[in-house]
Every structure is written in structure tokens, then in C-alpha cells.
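Hi U.,

Before I forget, here's the chain from the pilot set. I'm dumping it here mostly so it's searchable later in email.
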Amino acid sequence: MVIVVGISSCVDSDKDLYQEAPGVEINTSNFSTIQKVQVEIDCSNSESRVPFSIYDGNPLIEGENTIILKENVQALDGAWTDEQGKFTATVELPAYVSNVYIVSTSPFARQAIPGKIVNGVLKVSDTDEQFTTRASYRESTRFDRNRFNNLGWNTNLGSFDDRSGVIDYAYKGNDPKLTLSKSEMNELRTTVSKVLNTLGSCPEEYRTQADLYVEEDETAVVLTALRGWTCWNSSLGYYYYRYDQAPASLKDVKVYAVFPNTQMTWNNGSLQASPQGIKELKYFDDPEYPKGKNFPKGYYIGFILACNAWNTYFTGFNSYTLTEGFYASSTKGFSTKVNSGIDVRTAMFKDKNSNIAIAFEDFMDDQNFTDVVFSLKANPEITNVPPVDEDLNTTIEKTGVYAFEDEWPKAGDYDMNDVLVQYTYQKVFNIFNEILSESFIFKTLYNKSTVFTNGLGFILSNEGNAQSTEYFIRKENEKDFTVASGADKFTRESNAIILTDNVKTNPNAEYKVTFKYGDKNSNKKQETSIDAFIYRPSKEGNRLEVHCPMKKPTSKVDTSLFGQYEDCSKPNEGIYYVSNQENIYPFAFYLSNANANDIAELKNFDKNEKKSISEIYPKFIDWAKYGTNADWYKKK
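Structure:
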């Protein structure tokens, strides 16, 4: 959120707070709170594109059965890696940031990786150590040789190690219609990461209580384990039934074990699970084929996950006592209900290649459906699975604060609170990091002590070729944005947009501009930069404009004001809105990643009117003079 502050004169004297001596040098500092960082991220263990976000601290909280984001924590930036799991680009981050966390919501990437910015470079890799699930560091287990057998499942597919669960009946075929090529695996994993979010909730449209329907005779079905994000050693099985003989309960089906232990990455002493590989499912009810055969048409195939049911089971969480007998099933009514009454614990969807992903929520209700994820290929194809929406895109939101001293070019009281505008940048982008839309939102904060009538606008840089532009306003106490029209209509200039000629006309209003570049793809990857400014009419149709230091004004600025009073601008040299070296106060500044809590004192108009910014934020002086305490405005 950015706050634009327009400041009216709050002192009686026209003299600056600091008297300039002849020959004093110009202070050409831009007072920037932004640093450009070369970001290099390597998540190649994911073997696909994965989304990630950058945070200025660890944003995660680990609970008994879940890991969640802290409340009111906002990412600094985010993107998708390429298909090799790598990302390299120059990113603008707050200048105060040094230590960061790279957080991915993909079930195929490490969830949080710490990193440090060194000499303007941030390098982070997930290849430094093995991918882990939460079970990897919960070494408290027990062994019960009969625990899995007590499920009563059939083991017709083959045998397995009774401690680790590693199977010896992996599919050995190479039929391309039943196995995933490298490119298919990459595409399906990427699709899974678009749909499933380890820190979020699975979209309702992909949750299902329907089993897979076999439409053709001799249908071969193969499962491939993808990944899971779980703290339990659970068991996966399948069953089948004819379309006109639907079972009433689990007691009415024969369950066949697929993965006795679905834990993909688990190391407990001398026991280590390995990727569970590929399994071919079989139909066992034809007496002529005691070893099983391909499925006949007219049958449904269902799946069931028995939570923590493997022989070597976890006891590291207090709730382990509740896992026994806890089932997640694809068939309606077969899953264990909990207090919330939620009965849907499977998600199914297919990618653009028609490859199917099946995901489970194994226990309780964090609703991310990333605990166990596998793929399914059938020949002929199984079709009663929804495709993933191609428009399932990613949104990033950034915030900050602008503040202005509107006495320019004269010195003011530098309380920086005459016009406050909270600014939010929103970006919607696809997995290729192509920007599909950008929104710029400015919320003014009304200060009754402001004397001047200040307008508000912003200059655009790196603007793309938008297919359309939309203008909205949301006035105080209004719930929704409406189209800005009539007296509220915005004005588009060559490289600027004027939002209002008087911020006091609609106190505490929000102004929103949205550029749309494409529905599915675009040629725009670089974010549009802006420079917000305040203004009021000057002579000969020009404007008195106040910008952040070293920012070039619009073509309508009154150039006769440069170099007057306390301003030391030299337009011919590209120097704008600066003072002499002895003046530590800018006429305006932008506070990157500042939020409403950070500026609580700044917007306390009654308390802090006429107080200089250094009185409100004591660490401001060291930042302005020496560049230290770059987080001077952040509330700890």
C-alpha cells in the first residue's frame, strides 16, 4: 500500500528550517527506499515450473497438523520459475531488506528457503539439501507389523518391505500412452502447482466425490506417484464396482493396496522411503485371469487413503491417536467426517495433455489437498475429469507509502502529512511471467489541516501496449469500485494520469487504474513503474508539481519555480526537487512496503501536525544523512 502525502504549509515563516550558506553543495540524494536486486532462484529439484514469493522474514507458523501463513503478512514480490525450476531477473525490493525467505506453495518445492542479499545479489537454491516433508523431521515413530494388515486390504499387485513400504511391483512397461514423458511430467507438475497450494485451499471446482469411469473394454490404468506434503505414513488403495452396482459403504468393496506407504521423502534412522514409482492397476474378478487384467467397460474405479496406517507409523504429533481408522475416499460418503462435516477429501483434474492428477486431503481440514498427489494415465482415456482452467493465473500485490511537502519550492514544516494516499500495485500474470493486467490503486487519507487545494496524479514508465484501460473510483463508505465518470472522470495525458484536481473533493477516496494486456498471454514482462505527484494550478496554464527527489515532472510543470526559494533543481542536468546539502528533508518520498500500521503516527494528524518527520520517526535522520537504519519507518 502506498500513501501519497500532500503537505500544506504549516509554518508562518517563508524561511527554510535550515539556512543555506553561499556555495553549499546540492543534495542530489533521491531518498529512495528501493534497491535493485539480482535474484537467482534454483528450485530444480521440482522438475517443473513452480511459483514462489519473497518475504522479508519467515512468514510461516507451524501448527499441530498444518503450516499456515501469518496474518497480515505480505510478500515483497513473486513469480514462476522456468520449466527447469530456475528464475533469474532484476527485482526491486525494499532497501531495508537483507535477510529474506523464498516461499513456494508448490507441493514439489521446498516450502521455505532462507536467503541473504549480498552486494545486490540474492542466490537461493533448493538443491543444497534433500526435499523434505514434515514427516522428515518428526522421527518419533512406532512399528507394528500387523498395522497395515489390519486394514484388510488385498495385496494382489505384489509384495513390499514391511518396514519402509517400498514395493517390488513397479510397472516395467514403456507404453507412451500409459507413462509420462519428461515433458508430460513437467507439464502435469506445473498444472498441479497452479491448482494446489500448500498454504491455501483447493478450488471447489476440482474437489470431487466421483470415481473414474471406464468407458471402453480393455482399459489399461497406470498410476505414477508425484509428491506429497504430509506428516503421516499413509496407505493408498483402489477398488472398483460396476456402474449399476454402486457400493453403500467401504464394507461393500474389495480394496487393493497400491502404495502401502505413500510417504515420498522420509528418513527415520535406517529406514528410508524412495520415490514410489509407477503402478499398473488390475481388474481381479475374472477367474480366467487370476493375476489380473485390464478393466472392462462400465466400471468405476475409486481410491482410498488410510491415514497413518503403515506399519511404521508416526507418533510425533499429539493427534496421531486420532489417525487410526481415518479414511479419505473418492466415493461420496466413504470419507471419515470430522467436526466440520466436510466429506470431500479428493481432488481430480487434468492438464492440457489430458493427463490426470489425483490429490488427497489425508487428515483434519487444512483443505490444501496436497498430502498425497499422483497421476493417472489410461488407454483408452478416462474422460470424466475436469480440465484445469487455462486462466488460472497468479496475483501479486505490493504496497508502500508516498509523502509530500506541498509548500515546495518553499520550505515547510516537513511533517509530510498534508495529503496521504495509500498506494497498492496489483499484477496478474501467467506461469510464463507474462503480465496480463496491472492495477494501480491510490487511497487518499484526508487531513483537515491541509491548506492548499492539491490534485493527485502519477507518471508512467515502462508502460506496455494495453488492450484496454479501465478507471474506477470508490468513495468513502462505498463497498465497491464504480467507473470513474462525470465530475470524477480521470484525465489521461501523454505519460501521466490525473486522478483528481482536488483530493479534498472526495475525502478518503480510492482511485484505481487497470491496464489489461491479454486474457491468456501477453508480450509484457516488465512491471510498469510509476511516480505519484501532487499539483495545483500555476501561471499560464501550467502546474506547480511536487515529485519525489530526482523524478522528472510532466511537460505541464511550471519551470519558473525551479531554483526558487529552497529548491535547487537543475532541469538541464536532470536534477529535480532537491535542496542544498545541509537540508536533510526531501519535499517528498516513497516508503517501500510500508503499511497502515507503519504510518499510524504519520497519519495521526491531530497529534503530529507541524512536527517534522524526524520527530515522528527519530531514525529518519541517520537514514537521510548516512543511509543507515533503512527500516526507519517500519514498525517492529
